[in-house]
Amino acid sequence: MQLVIIAATLGVLLVIFAASLAPPLLVALWYQDGLADEFLLIQAVCAVIGIILWLFSGKGEHHMRNRDGFAIATLMWVVVSLLGSLPFIVCLDMSLANSVFESTSAFTTTGATTIVGLDTLPMSILFYRAELQWLGGIGVIISAIALLPMLGVGGTQLLKAETPGPVKENQLTPRIRRTAQVVWTLYLVITVACAVCYWLAGMTPFDAMAHSFATVSTGGFSTHDASLAYFDSPMIETVAVIFMMAGAMNFSLHFLVWRKRDLGAYLRNEEARALIALVIVTSLIIAWVLHEDGHYGSVTHTLRFGIFQVVSVVTSTGFGISDFSVWPLMLPILLMFISFVGGCAGSTAGGMKVIRVVVLAKQAGIEVKRLVHPNLVRPLTLDGKTVPNKIVQTVWAYFAIYVTAFALLMLLLMQGGMDQLTAFSAVTTCLNNLGPGLGEVSANFVTVTAIQKWMLSGAMLLGRLEIFTIFVIFTPAFWKA
Description:
Number of strands: 2
Strand content: under 5%
Number of helices: 23
């Protein structure tokens, strides 16, 4: 690997992280919560280290290979997750394991937490948690490509390692920096629109901004322990549903809709249609079961809670207006299962991604037909275009590695004394970047041991970087290339 490139990139990212501490610092000063000095100290340290690394790397253009991109993507998320834990350690006196877990959960937009008593936390910390999720949603690497062209290295390899989904070659625009800027602009516009809608729906300006960060990033951190149930507002919940779905849609599709001024493009996209269909069908099933059980009484309340919770889970946001872990019959497990699907590729959502599930389902259907017609030749298509066999094979490989990683993590947690239901839901929620779970982790991860928190932090990183990016650096071929 080219250490100069890695040093330059990490240096710039550290400077970006230092700059990101300015808003919570201003919040601390505005609300006078006593944490301004702590944020200023952390900001100064990160900025100095970042500048030193960048100066050490020298100037000039450097050619970045695929190997460098994967290494930087992995190192960046590990380093930034560790740095992000500093305010929790310094300001709240949290343990290292809890702080790293909280930071990793924020950056990976998972939304799992070890903090209780959110309603009494300093405002600057609440804002900081939300901001971490917002930055994690768009990806700190894309931020560097879009905002800091002085980096001096090609960005294609970074974007390839960072972008979720099986198809990583497509760009919105011919130049990578322009692509990142387009993504940033869309992300910012949607976030501002979400904040304004929350404010008009009844939130305070502070809550509106914090929740817009957590909604569009599909992160799910709230400023209240009760999450959105604190507001008990159908209007606020409607805003959340709309913008959670927006965050879970492919940003390339958002760009297409914006450029052509054509909302119909959403329905013409096969992946988007599959996501919408999944939400509708699952919502109807859950609403029917809840209605038959008499859990909420009226049909209106049943639909309200059912639709919201389905959208929150399938988009991997994790907001709650009800404790679905106590819902009747198979509903809690059903919600855990749909979290495996997640949102669309090229979105902020977690999970395996809808496009992979669609490819797996279509390929399975073709293979079943070949049992009847052995000589059948039928290519797999998406949106009328043939999917190359290379991508189909990659999807199957991803699925195999995903299942293997899931099983190993679950067994390790159970070996550490965690019961089966809690272990299953803990791995599910962390690997899919969801947030809420079942059993002991239905509300938070306070009771999880320090070792288990480190393992689950790793699971969140695996899910955020879609497994391949991290796994590839542990192969001998990677270091010999």
